[in-house]
Amino acid sequence: MKYSEALFFIADILSLGINPENRYRVASKISERINWEVIVQLSSKHYVLPALFIRLKDAHLLHLLPHELQGYMAYVNSLNRTRNKKLLKEAKAINEILSLKCIKPIFLKGTALLLGGLYSDLSERMVGDIDFLVAQDEVLKVARILTENGYKSLSDVPQDFNRMKHYPRMVHQDREFALEIHKDVIQSISDRQLNYTQIHQTKRMVNGLCLPSYSNLILHNIMNMQMNDKGFLFASCNFRQQYDFILLSQEENPVDVIRTFQHHKRILKAYLVKTTYLFHGLKTLSYSKNLWTFWVRNRCRLAIHYPGILKIINSLVFLLFRAYRDCTLFIQYTLKKHKRKQLIEQLLNAKWRSNYLRSIFNGLVSV
Length: 367
Known about the structure:
Elements: H1 3-14, H2 22-31, H3 36-45, H4 49-58, H5 67-99, E1 106-107, H6 109-115, E2 129-133, H7 139-148, E3 151-153, E4 170-172, E5 178-182, H8 196-201, E6 204-206, E7 209-211, H9 214-228, H10 231-234, H11 239-248, H12 254-260, H13 265-278, H14 291-305, H15 307-334, H16 337-347, H17 350-366
Parallel strand pairs: 2-5
Antiparallel strand pairs: 1-2, 3-4, 6-7
Helix pairs in contact: 1-3, 4-5, 9-11, 9-13, 12-13, 13-14, 14-15, 15-16, 15-17
């Protein structure tokens, strides 16, 4: 089974809830020879295996799968449902702790989508951490409050904390989920037009919890993948985020959201083109065709149909990106006395050099 065939097959299953007419196409493909090992590996890598199970179950197609595979998917789904119940409980507990101190966290990403009831089944979404947003001048206070309630930071606050979008991850020995206290949602300082002020002014209240508006959830979804995760740079896809995106597109038209937001137009439109190409046939996804969207679409086509060629291209792009970024940082460090001292200490540290080279190697492997 080709990589492209596997991707489109997974996309067809994920879109069954929105495009029920895909059922016949999916059923026809299942009746053919499907390499389920590839499908499971790829959907697990993208954290959408529970969503596949729910979509196949709701479309009454589970009986077409091998019996052993049905059992495995049901088991994973059950584990994720139990885990997500704990997540909702922990998120509500955090909200109560902070509310007592007159702080109302705005939950983000998967936590916000689960709290907002975006999914037809609680087990659909796999979530890693509990992310929430507070005002910049509240971050340290929130960290202190959580520390008093048994949480601890996994690392010290860096000196250049302003460049970070969230406080160092916090964990609790009796809780399952790590916390990320965000002051920003975008990593690059120059790209932080979607900020706390905009998200706070348009937030929604759902069962006593603060969630971003649908338009800001859409923008954060796009910008997180395209900019924070370098999805635009490497023309990569992420089924979990793009599945969230097509569900959010049922609540608010992403074309209108992108038109209203006055920043990063090309990057935002590129995500729309990429998702439309992958989830073809969705009526809520559309874009105007021009030279830019033609280029993006063909770049996406290259990524899906010729992943080996794109891997080589992305490796070169990654090395150029790292060289530019590291040279820029090197110049910035040499211009400030206290930074120069820190740089020299790092360069003389064998462990730091080893970690630096390992980060480059891991980056090449992951692109």
